[in-house]
Design a protein that fits this description.
This protein is 59% helix and 4% strand. By secondary structure, the chain is mainly α. The chain has a single domain, classed as Recoverin, domain 1. It has a two-stranded antiparallel ribbon with strand order 1-2. The longest helix has 17 residues. It is globular.
Amino acid sequence: MSKRDDLIAKYAADMKEKCGITPDMDLLTKVTIGCGPAIYNRDASTVSGSDEAELATVKNNYLIKKLGLSDSAELDKGIAAVMEKYGQSNPSKYRAVVYYMLCTHFGKESVYK
């Protein structure tokens, strides 16, 4: 298995353990690939749910630019819902998992088809 495959397996296990979600492995793979080299960088591979600047980056670069959503209060509510489901006390929120959950939350799986 490649390093990316190992990370995807780790993300899937994290989703099952912490969120009670059994991911669509094809979609999780595509979301992970979409994260690019960030998944290999310890700092860039995670999202801090308490860092407003980082959450703004997720909103602007992922929800608006990648998924094509319009800026609205709904985006902030979606991010908050995903952070809550992933667990506010969980310090290691993997970026690929957060993006996967946001993608499914907003029903934008078609972006990765």
